[in-house]
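Section 3.1: Structural characterization of target chains.
Under the original work plan, the team committed to producing a structural model for every single-chain target entering the pipeline before any wet-lab resources were allocated. The record below documents one such target. The sequence was received from the expression subgroup and is listed exactly as submitted; it comprises 285 residues.
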Amino acid sequence: MKSPEAMASGRGVISLRFNQDQDTELMGSVSRCEMLYRSNLLAVVAGGSRPKFAENTVLVYDDVSKKFVLEFTFSDPVKAVRLRRDRQVLRDFYMKLVVALCQHIHVFTFPAPAQRMFSIETRENPLGLCEVTPFLTAERQFLIFPGHKAGSVQLVDTNIVIDIKIRRLKWLGHIIRMDNNRIPKILLDVKPNGKRRVGRPKLRWLDDVQDDLFKDLANTEAGMSCAPVTINAHRGELACLAVNQQGTLIATASSKGTLIRVWDTARRNQLVELRRGSDPATLYW
């Protein structure tokens, strides 16, 4: 490889190669790694021939302090992991960690404090197909993963807090309509006897429901829906998913690998169909 000046003078670098050795002393061999935008944080999942950690653990590594700062452990092996900035409070950014297992997707927020926001049960997802809108300023904030029906895609607004509040109110209505001898109805109306400890009372589930009803959801824009949406993209199982930076388009491919389809996330309709050929193939994003 020669620079233009070197080629003009007949001298220069003839060959250039990078060192491909991997330092496995710190974290061992790695199967998956996700960077948080352009930052010093990396989400790492061990795997390969010389793993140092379990494959059901996600470690968040800080490249500035040169150490692991967070650890998330699950009951099943981790199939995929995604990171993105979530929101800004004063000068601090909160991050969102999305972890895909074979039949579940877990969403966490961190760093202060790290806590699980919600979990979703999914169709069997051995490839760990899962995408999230990368930018905080994107037009549409979506979490995208395979739906329960073969070949379908499910879209969940990552402002999932509103969706959780709506579901909580639906569950309250379901309990109210229950017979009085049902256990959830009894627990809803129960009033424990005795004295509580000194200090502020702990928040009850009904306290959250009241806040949902009179504070948060009352300020939600009219016509805005955060309910999950399903797109029947293919007849066969999904093999690949991708989303654009603004969250307005998603691309899907099936396990057959002959078609790539592009969908509008707002209208849920197909925009483009690209045919690769008639022979089956494995597609990668």
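Residues 15-22, 216-225 have pLDDT under 50 and may be disordered.
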